[in-house]
Amino acid sequence: QLQLVESGGGLVQSGTSLRLSCAAHGFTAADYTIGWFRQAPGKEREGISYITSSNYTYYKDSVKGRFTISRDNAKNTVYLQMKSLQPEDTARYLCAARYDDSSWYSHWGQGTQVIVSS
Description:
Elements: E1 3-7, E2 10-13, E3 18-25, E4 33-39, E5 46-51, E6 57-59, E7 67-72, E8 77-82, E9 91-98, E10 107-108, E11 112-117
Parallel strand pairs: 2-11
Antiparallel strand pairs: 1-3, 3-8, 4-5, 4-9, 5-6, 7-8, 9-10, 9-11
């Protein structure tokens, strides 16, 4: 069964860091583009970063310079290192997988909650 499992969320103070993990099960994450999304209460889900199978990376402007996406193929896991967290980063963070040449994310995790207090 193809599955993505996020972890690493929590309650942190403004200005601190967190690293989120997205572990793939039942498929090889290195063969896919893995994206990170977030959804805050009352807001639409937004894509904030992705990494392709060739390790091209993309960041939304709101997180560029603060967040870093990376892979550990040996662990079949993608990470999102988040620095200088702000209250507006509070959201449920989800990862998803798609083929490089598709815009459709076919597999989604359940998400991990990040709360940033001021």
